[in-house]
Write a structure and sequence with these properties.
Radius of gyration: 18 Å
Order of helices and strands: HHH
Strand content: under 5%
Largest sheet: none
Number of strands: 0
Shape: elongated
Amino acid sequence: CLGYNAVMERFFLNLKRERVWLREYANQLEATKDVTGYIVGFCNSARRHPALGNVAPLVYEQQFAAKEPIDVSKII
């Protein structure tokens, strides 16, 4: 998997550019909390994703949850 490592390297470069290099941390715990918050909060829920119709995963989940559930017992 030659390209797999390139994807991860790009992710960590973006993380450093967008977050780590722009801040000064008092200690390692503060840095760990900030980076964890970035990964969990921003990458996973805020960024729009083309596979989801170019909406953020959180918005997609809210739209999906608002739909009427399918009653599978009435199918057929």
